[in-house]
Amino acid sequence: MDALPCQGCRGLCCGPVPVTNKELRAIRKLLGAMPRRRRIALEQQERFFGTCMFYDQDSDKCGIHSARPDVCRAFGHSSNLVCFRRPESATGSPWQASSDPAGILSVDFTWKDF
């Protein structure tokens, strides 16, 4: 998969983000291993309304990239999740969740849940 040109988008495509229970466990594990300073810095950032709570505005990239949900992994590469800056990359079949979401990041799950 080609990398998407995410730098400069400031996370505007990063939300809403549905997550499964399995993905929540992976995120919790990553956050538990994250240095406290880094976690606090990520948590205290201002974000655009609707942008994922884990989008790192300071570095203009995903703050939990290695544990990001499947929808984030599919974004820009699936025909129903098209990146407006590189629509030609969305050649894959439509993304469909492998299981029902437990909720939406920044709506159903906030920092208090992690």
Can you walk through the features of this model?
- The protein has 114 residues and is of the alpha+beta class.
- The chain has helices at 21-33, 36-43, 70-74; strands spanning 17-19, 55-56, 61-62, 103-105.
- Helices cover 23% and strands 9% of the residues.
- It has a two-stranded antiparallel sheet with strand order 1-4. Strands 2-3 form a two-stranded antiparallel ribbon.
- It is globular, with a radius of gyration of 14 Å.
Keywords:
114 residues, alpha+beta, two-stranded antiparallel ribbon, two-stranded antiparallel sheet, 3 helices, 4 strands
Secondary-structure topology with pairs:
Layout: E1 17-19, H1 21-33, H2 36-43, E2 55-56, E3 61-62, H3 70-74, E4 103-105
Antiparallel strand pairs: 1-4, 2-3
